[in-house]
Amino acid sequence: MPSIRGQVADIFNRRIYAATVFFEDGKIVSINPVAKDAAGTGHYIIPGFTDAHVHIESSMLVPAEFARLAVVHGTVSTISDPHEIANVCGLQGVAFMIENGNTVPFKFNFGAPSCVPATIFETAGAVIDANDTKKLLLRDDIKYLSEMMNFPGVLCKDEEVMKKIAAAHTLNKPIDGHAPGVRGEKAIQYINAGISTDHECFTAEEALDKLQAGMKILIREGSAAKNFEALIGLLHDYPDMIMFCSDDKHPDSLVAGHINQLCARAVAKGMDVFNVLRAACVNPVLHYKTGTGLMRPGDAADFIVVKDLKNFEAVQTYIDGELVAENGKSLISSPEPGIINNFLCSKKMEGDFTADWNNEKSITVIEALDGQLITNKLNWPPKVINRKITSDIENDILKIVVVNRYHHAPIAKAFIKNFGLKLGAIASSVAHDSHNIVAVGVDDKSICKAVNLVIEKKGGISCVSNDAEMVLGLPVAGLMSNENGYRVAAAYTAIDAMAKSLGSHLSAPFMTLSFMALLVIPHVKLSDKGLFDGDEFTLTPSPSPPSVERGAAP
Amino acid sequence: MPSIRGQVADIFNRRIYAATVFFEDGKIVSINPVAKDAAGTGHYIIPGFTDAHVHIESSMLVPAEFARLAVVHGTVSTISDPHEIANVCGLQGVAFMIENGNTVPFKFNFGAPSCVPATIFETAGAVIDANDTKKLLLRDDIKYLSEMMNFPGVLCKDEEVMKKIAAAHTLNKPIDGHAPGVRGEKAIQYINAGISTDHECFTAEEALDKLQAGMKILIREGSAAKNFEALIGLLHDYPDMIMFCSDDKHPDSLVAGHINQLCARAVAKGMDVFNVLRAACVNPVLHYKTGTGLMRPGDAADFIVVKDLKNFEAVQTYIDGELVAENGKSLISSPEPGIINNFLCSKKMEGDFTADWNNEKSITVIEALDGQLITNKLNWPPKVINRKITSDIENDILKIVVVNRYHHAPIAKAFIKNFGLKLGAIASSVAHDSHNIVAVGVDDKSICKAVNLVIEKKGGISCVSNDAEMVLGLPVAGLMSNENGYRVAAAYTAIDAMAKSLGSHLSAPFMTLSFMALLVIPHVKLSDKGLFDGDEFTLTPSPSPPSVERGAAP
């Protein structure tokens, strides 16, 4: 029978002891204590890590490839919301993720997306209604109802929303929340609807409010949102109600590390190591009933060997008793390429991107903020040339466009501050939540070129300057690559550097770009249907609104 | 009258003294000693640096943009061989370089290329014969006859070669050598023909031979060849006969530093600082009679202010009395874009790249060596699929092609070891010396795509994987960009990283690629006319030789 010897972490009893772990057929058979200084007890054996909330799609990798990279860092499972692909490909997209994930030894625990489409003010690729949601929740491999972003819908008891929540309750599956900044009575109402987690807190006060109302709090530290520093202190008093998650994890940062990094940072801040391991390993497994092993006899043999309980560097990762990573190398093979997509628009012409000037003295300008999903609303005099509003490079007011990727339709145009490009353009078909094509640039020629590069690849991110151009194709739903994850990370790093070389001082220009069409976060965004005021929650006049031209748009 | 105060380096008298330097109308008027501890004497004032041999084209920047970046490092002049553009655009190319260089305050000192084309076994874009050479040498702004690579032509007194040499002698302009590894009697003969420098030595012994025969030695440390460590010791005994040069300096390394770095390394190795400054500032100016200022009254006011004589970090750079760089910022404006090119081939199809199998049991394979221009000749059994020879990824034997860029012609194909790509392809129109398009890849589809990206841009470097692609266009002669040099450097860094992410372990895959068509360096290379044996100095059978198809090639 295979066995492994080391300092075993028994998180439930808060102790560490030298032992030999015997395992067979994917399960731990027994854990037999040995003398503390017996040979082979130098390393620690602990349960593998769980990312308690992650959109796999943000890694730009298909699930199997995500797993291949994540196991290197000791991650053995995730709670995965396939919200992005669901907005593009609907139920088929969810099925693709599950099937792709099933090809590798890794525990994905997908949820049923609750808000597809996110709003009625944009064109998504699919609708998942309450009946679809119920169908999904009936599946054994769908573990929960994922982040209920429609917070007003919950409070006003919207019929569809209530049906989805009821389906989850009936099936005894947890419901994830998403209620940034919600406090007091409204928070209580939201929680009382049976929503049991939140990963959107950005202050300790808000998190404490929710914890005290019985909600579990996911401390999020990903490529986009970074709340670790603000929230980690809560672990001391609420060790059973805290989990760690990344939410959005870009390929370059997945190569660098995962939940292991959060453990190391928490311990370095003086957090009790058993509390840290509860958040990183135990709490998500118990909350979502994932069945991931937790180092007890009879548990699945999901464990990792780490050199110490400071850096949590994974020497070995086991899933169901199979060694899947060792010394920084993944032992999982790259998956066979598989394609699913919903990308039907054809190439654009430069003239499609002009913004007519209708004698406006001032236009609404989106102010992007570095590292934030929220934007500000500015008013600014337009720069007009030949009765067209153009990018005003000197004042860093650049044209932003959203191109419907699902069918041929007029292009939405507006202007945005803080992208900083001095020439060229960047474009992306990763554009939350509907994943149309969003682009920012200094002139229509560059914008058109960048958009067309994305269209040629049927999805991707692109960067165009005068002489150089680069595109990272994401042909899987326009969100993910089929290539080796390390290569995708290298390409992402390269295109990120190129965008910065064009003048952008944003810390992650493509990430910021991807949130400029995310209507559910205020204050002003651009959808394929036009400029959207998040405070009024409605479309608002924009320069050169997308009129119905060329007889398109059903 | 403008003046500047500091510790002035008087290299000729090997002393440093506190002084005020007065300058006017681009010249130093007087240098007046002051008390050693007078205000403002903390920094050192020394002559600017000269790169004694550089092909500006290798920076991928036009001369004015090269200058804009170089002055930041204290470089005020170069000895520039426009050999690359001459092979593409002939005399017009040389004129372009001179005119472009004249738009900025910088001293380029161009030479007349001596070997265009380099051999008769390849298709270049132009011929510069002895009459053309003479015409060039008659110009005041052509300072020398540049590297005479046709070493056998010199020894056997080839008529054209002798005419070129005679023209330089008549006009009292120096002749640069290029005689790697040549020793003994042959070296004497070569030197006796009146060739006065060599920048190709890679051992101290060889350099010593040449120094003792009266030749001046340029210690070369660039992106391609790195001879500094081997040769710097010679500076001790031959301080008047040594210069520093880069030869080929890629954009990323030009951003990092220039001759200043070699000074710092030489001083760190214990070399006398005045000897170092002779090599870096004085010797090239005297040898090539460039008229660059050397810190004497009456000299051009070309000087730099450095913090110390250890790191040679330039605080200020002056050329003809004009402040052109300060604290790491260039004060030279980017030039207006200008285009000259010779790029006439049209896009290729995948089928153009197939290599037929003619029952060969073994094929000649080029073995590329990291960091070297030289290659080895291997024999290897071909990998055959459907009677076509294909890349053998497992054994790292990949297809290499050379595509004539000057007119439509059949494609030369061969196989090469050590590029290491596991997928995709890379291509470049920087391909010494004729600058056709050279590409290496794992399959014809990727190779075709990479080549066509270069063709679309009328020159450039490209990298293609399954999902991603990148091209850095070099529309100026297919060698240089019109963009901001820092952006070009960033793009070059990005595409280099992308090539490495496809599996190449070469330290600079595009640089190695650019030398695979350089016939004058043994042992086996590929020209647009086929596989070339550098030892026999003739074409040699290759798989699927480029027969005259599709009625092309004049």
Overall shape of chain A: it is globular
- Percent of residues of chain A in beta strands? 25-35%
Low-confidence stretches of chain A: 547-554
Number of helices of chain A: 14
Distance between the termini of chain A: 63 Å
- The total beta strand count of chain A reads 30
Q: If strands are numbered along the chain, what order do they take across the biggest sheet of chain A?
A: 3-2-1-4-13-14-15-16
Characterise the protein shown here.
Chain A is built from 14 helices and 30 strands. Chain A has an 8-stranded mixed β-sheet with strand order 3-2-1-4-13-14-15-16, covered by helices on one side. In chain A, strands 19-18-23-22-25-24-26-27 form an 8-stranded mixed β-sheet, with helices on both faces. The first copy, chain A, has a 6-stranded parallel β-sheet with strand order 7-8-9-10-11-12. The C terminus of chain A is likely disordered. Chain A is globular, with a radius of gyration of 24 Å. Chain A is an alpha/beta fold and 554 residues long. Strand 27 of chain A pairs antiparallel with strand 27 of chain B.
Structure summary:
Two copies of one chain form a homodimer. Chain A is of the alpha/beta class.
